């Protein structure tokens, strides 16, 4: 079988590409390289069944031919990060919403048998219930979360109206090797590891007691494969670790001095996925414990040698727009 992976040169997409190749699938790795890196795919070049295509999901006419002959589509291409989405909402809409529409139309045109969409748990906003089930209201706090939710709505609607077999996976706080080392401030592992390498204090938002459902990337890749192999359609599944961990505990595992910076508006005190549905429907469960995952990250810490080093002053400057727009009285 042949699988097209959009956003294949990105963090999660590259791990999905590797899993598919290891399972004997042919893979068309599609990416425009605006945020992804060919370094994430370098170990796959020359492998039987691997082909890289540079294409932009915003360009419908040039995108569609790459879907020819594919059986499944894993759709991960998109814009991420909170601050840039506040500054550039049009770009986020063009990529995450219009780009997803183009992917869906190409999938219809070429008779794709299964599409799996990478949604975001950030679309829940600040939930009322923990662990948070898929039935929780969608209440995005910033444009990134909104555009990911809109992309999901398109996927589910195309599944119902056009009978395109498709499911959406709401991903919770994914981390692991190859997570981005550049770009806007926001990815806690990249921030901490770069600071640790330089012997700087780790910058903890608020009091550090906020918890996150840190989910290891190989478990996420397995969830995509499980969803593709299932008969589910027009369904949503949370993908989480089955637990949640404080930022202070993460700092304890990494080691080093601490520095506390102001809490940011629009961020929940907890993210914690209810994974009952994916466990029962897709027979999927996470395999990598948080402690094991952090140990892996520490082993590949050198990958963050050239990553931006964030000080409290740089963080304050980079996140000023966040406070300006989301810190206003509602």
Account of the 3D structure:
It holds the Pfam family Epimerase. This is SDR family oxidoreductase. Belongs to the NAD(P)-dependent epimerase/dehydratase family. InterPro entries: Epimerase_deHydtase, NAD(P)-bd_dom_sf. This protein has 330 residues and is α/β, with parallel strands linked by helices. The protein has 2 domains: 2-174 and 214-239, Rossmann fold, CATH 3.40.50.720; 177-212 and 244-270 and 288-325, UDP-galactose 4-epimerase, domain 1 (Alpha-Beta Complex). Helix content is 37%, strand content 16%. It has 12 helices and 13 strands. α1 (11-22) links the parallel β1 and β2. α1 (11-22) packs across α7 (217-229) and α4 packs parallel to α5.
Question: Short description, anyone?
Answer:
Pathway: Bacterial outer membrane biogenesis; LPS O-antigen biosynthesis. This protein has twelve helices and 13 strands.
- Which percent band covers the strand fraction? 15-25%
Oligomerization state: single chain
Mean pLDDT: 94
Q: Report on the biggest sheet.
A: 7 strands, parallel
Examine the secondary-structure arrangement and name the CATH architecture of the largest domain: 3-Layer(aba) Sandwich
Q: Cα-atom Rg, whole angstroms? A: 19 Å
Let me know the CATH homologous superfamily of the largest domain: NAD(P)-binding Rossmann-like Domain
**Main sheet strand line-up:** 3-2-1-4-5-6-11
Q: What count of domains describes the coordinates?
A: 2
Helix content: 25-40%
Which class of the largest domain in CATH terms?
Answer: Alpha Beta
CA-to-CA gap between the ends? 50 Å
What is the total tally of β strands? 13
Shape: globular
Low-confidence stretches: none
Q: Return the structural class.
A: alpha/beta
- CATH fold label of the largest domain: Rossmann fold
Order of helices and strands: EHEEHEHHEHEEHEEEHEEHEHHHH
Task: Please give the count of helices.
Answer: 12
InterPro entries: Epimerase_deHydtase, NAD(P)-bd_dom_sf
Protein name: SDR family oxidoreductase
Pathway: Bacterial outer membrane biogenesis; LPS O-antigen biosynthesis
Family: Belongs to the NAD(P)-dependent epimerase/dehydratase family.
């Amino acid at each position: 079988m042949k699988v097209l992976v959009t956003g294949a040169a990105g963090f999660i997409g590259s791990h999905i590409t590797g899993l598919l190749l290891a399972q004997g699938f042919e893979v068309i790795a599609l990416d425009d390289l605006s945020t992804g890196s060919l370094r994430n795919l370098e170990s796959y070049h020359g492998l039987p069944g691997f082909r890289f295509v540079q294409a932009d999901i915003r360009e419908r006419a040039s995108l569609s031919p790459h879907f020819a002959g594919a059986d499944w589509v894993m759709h991960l291409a998109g814009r991420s990060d909170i601050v840039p989405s506040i500054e550039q909402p049009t770009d986020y809409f063009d990529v995450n919403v219009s780009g997803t529409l183009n992917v869906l139309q190409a999938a219809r045109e070429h008779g794709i048998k299964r599409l799996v969409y990478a949604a975001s748990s950030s679309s829940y906003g600040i939930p009322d219930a923990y662990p948070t089930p898929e039935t929780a209201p969608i209440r995005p706090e910033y444009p990134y979360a909104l555009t990911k939710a809109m992309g999901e709505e398109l996927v589910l609607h195309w599944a119902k109206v056009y009978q395109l077999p498709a499911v959406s996976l709401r991903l919770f706080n994914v981390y692991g090797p190859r997570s981005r080392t550049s770009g806007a401030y926001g990815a806690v592992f990249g921030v901490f590891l770069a600071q640790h390498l330089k012997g700087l204090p780790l910058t903890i938002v608020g009091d550090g007691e906020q918890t996150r459902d840190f989910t290891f990337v190989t478990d996420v890749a397995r969830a995509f494969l499980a969803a593709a192999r299932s008969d589910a359609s027009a369904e949503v599944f949370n993908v989480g670790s089955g637990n949640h961990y404080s930022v202070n505990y993460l700092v304890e595992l990494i080691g080093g001095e601490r520095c506390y910076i102001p809490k940011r508006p629009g961020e929940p005190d907890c993210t914690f996925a209810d994974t009952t549905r994916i466990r029962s429907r897709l027979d999927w469960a996470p395999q990598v414990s948080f402690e094991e995952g952090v140990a892996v990250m520490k082993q590949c810490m050198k990958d963050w040698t050239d990553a931006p080093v964030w000080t409290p002053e740089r963080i304050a400057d980079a996140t000023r727009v966040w406070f300006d727009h989301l810190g206003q009285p509602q």
